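Friendly challenge for the regulars: who can give me the structure tokens for this chain first? No prize, just bragging rights.
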Amino acid sequence: MQHEVTNIQPLLGKNGRIIEEGWARHPLWTYNRAMVKGSAFRIKEWEYYAIINQDEQWATAVTFSDLGYAGMFAIAYIDLNTGRVSQTDAIAPLTLGKLRLPATSTEDHELSWANKHLRIALVKRGEERHIMYACPSLDLGDGVVGLDVDITLKQPSALESMTIATSWEKKRTCFYHNEKVNCLGAIGTIRRGTNQQRLPLGSTFGVLDWGRGKWTYKNTWYWASCSGLVEQVPFGLNLGYGFTDRSVASENVIIYDSVVHKLHEVMFEYSSYLEEWTMKDNEGRLDLVFKPITDRSSNFNLFLISSKQHQVFGSFSGTCILDNGQTIVVNNILGFAEEVANRW
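First reply, four minutes later:
Bragging rights claimed.
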């Protein structure tokens, strides 16, 4: 069952449960933090951006999140030519909603946070998302120190996205509300050390992972994403599973020329993170090979709280079949696939 929601509506009812579960082509649900049942320590709110340059083969990512017990922030740079991963993180204790992440992904807003090591500012105005972050001390290798990103992502109103609202079968007041926006054209600058590069439109694409939810304590999920051009037409993939009860809808979609093409179930198969992955769906519409380049991994364990993450960057090749039966041939589009196991 792939229930498509088409009406604008509140996310949660008075009982703290999702009013209408399913998926949508645009963000139609309005999240209200006050309607969440249970402790504020369980509420998760986040914005994550990954930006990949297909021509020069580099990626950068920024995380801005309020996980209840703490705010977690991260900046990363991934050199896909050498496989080197550079990252810096910061934690702000007991944020509990104080970071004021917006209730919808569509409203204009400004988010910012900084300490002596890093600074992040995320600004949405109309159809543009201005992404700014920097870490002057980040070691990028080969004697290059310092990262400064100032990029604007274009999100036209016609661009469809994967938006989903689902809950856990054993506890329906635990929920996951998420939007993944692929194929965000990027312009702006990136400075590595003293070398500043201006990004022409068409060489670099971003993906937004926007989420709000109240999760169960222990979860493992799988997510894969890419955005690029196929014969000069914007193309993207959002594939994922393992998180919540997806009997009402999955989050598996192909994005082609701004339109979402819905897939049902998708599985990843791999024997190790840095060996080839295969990705296929249950209807014969997706047949992909993901070739890893490098593993952006992290592992922390603080007794009751732990997270083990493997975000593997690499390239996708294979075929995808659109809703109208058209076959799209994918050839070495850079993206990532991840496995994440959390207790928090």
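Residues 9-343 form a domain with the AttH-like fold fold (CATH 2.40.370.10). The mean pLDDT is 96. Your move, everyone else.
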